Amino acid sequence: DLFVFPSLSETWGNVITEAMASGLAVVAFRHAASAELINSGDNGINLDPGDATGFQQAAAELCQHPADYARLGRLARLTVLERSWVGIAEQFKRHLNNALEAHHALSPACRIRSP
């Protein structure tokens, strides 16, 4: 019913994506994949890295509320279903375009000079 992921050493955390795709509510530290994928309280629970007590409390509290973890799991699944390869490629292109625009905005050769 829930996926509890206490790792701070996992670089991406494919298991978080897989758990969310399976419709599980995820409790994780706000780090790497969970920081990008989980909007705490909406589609999972994220806690500050190092807050072990808060992490334990959040997991224990959530497991006592089936309606809450069911709702989080449904929204978690919807979150990752939106992450298609096409969508990821489009996001990457937007990041590249933003970087290019920022570079040109800072480049002295591209600045418009007043007379």
Protein model, in words:
The chain is mainly alpha-helical and 115 residues long. It has a single domain, classed as 3-Layer(aba) Sandwich (Rossmann fold), CATH 3.40.50.2000. It is 56% helix and 10% strand. The chain contains 5 helices and 3 strands, in the order E-H-E-H-E-H-H-H. A 3-stranded parallel beta sheet has the order 1-2-3, sandwiched between helices. Helix 1 links the parallel strand 1 and strand 2. Helix 1 packs across helix 4. It is elongated. The mean pLDDT is 90.
**What is the β-strand count?**
3
Rounded to an integer in angstroms, the radius of gyration calculated over CA atoms is 19 Å
Classify the helix fraction into a percent range: 55-70%
Straight-line distance between termini? 67 Å
Q: Fill in the CATH topology.
A: Rossmann fold
Structural class, by secondary structure, is mainly alpha
* Spatial strand sequence of the major β-sheet: 1-2-3
Keywords:
115 residues, Rossmann fold, mainly alpha, elongated, three-stranded parallel β-sheet, 56% helix
Task: Kindly summarize this structure in a few lines.
56% of the residues lie in helices and 10% in strands. The protein has 5 helices and 3 strands.
List the helices and strands and how they pair.
Layout (H helix, E strand, L loop, with lengths): L1 E4 L8 H8 L3 E5 L2 H6 L7 E3 L4 H12 L2 H16 L3 H22 L9
Parallel strand pairs: 1-2, 2-3
